[in-house]
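[job 4471] stage=fold_predict status=RUNNING
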Amino acid sequence: MIDQKKTSVFIVDDHDMVRAGLTYFLQSFDDLELIGETNNGNKALEMIQMLNPDVVLMDLVMPGISGIEIIKAVHQSCTATKILALTSFNDKQLIFDAMHAGAIGYILKNVSIDELANAIRSAAEGKPTVNADVLQVLIEFPLKEDKTDADDFQLTNREHEVLSLIVNGLTNQKIAETLMIETSTVKSHVSNILKKLDASSRTEAAALATQLHLIKEKPDGYPSPS
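[job 4471] inference complete, writing structure tokens
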């Protein structure tokens, strides 16, 4: 029997009790593996670059360098690593800043063990993940004044289709299968969508698409969000 590949996880949090709790939590799941941790924001980037984890659980409010700054740096230098903001703060500006910096998800620390495990798995697969209340904050966040209409973004029909599937949480591979195109083509469309929406992550793009009603009616055969 072939062993299932484990999702490697790195923790950045300045509270010892939180890191200890997360370490214990990760031991409960055979498919998740803790490969490192730190309470030091300045040391986090160096360790993440060295260990190259699949997912980073990132606290946002820490002494010294902030979680937002670390997210920006990791997003630019470790493109394969997905960052999941894990914090106690349901603050509108903090949520927006984390998404714009490149976090793939934003999870509050009061989530259940199973919810957090599923969020880590989704992040590793490239699926945006947020709490329901966090998503509501993103949807209600004030729009940029220069772009308030769907036509301002000049998305092509294919980009609208890809964006619709991003909102539904599909990975690039699943989007390629659904639209019967190459994965490399999907990546190109996603890159163009992020540029046109001025979004740094799929999660931010999905929230903006919901705000502006950019998603056209789904054609037959499109999967529904689970």
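[job 4471] summary: The beta strands are 7-12, 32-38, 55-58, 82-87, 105-108, 129-130.
[job 4471] exit 0
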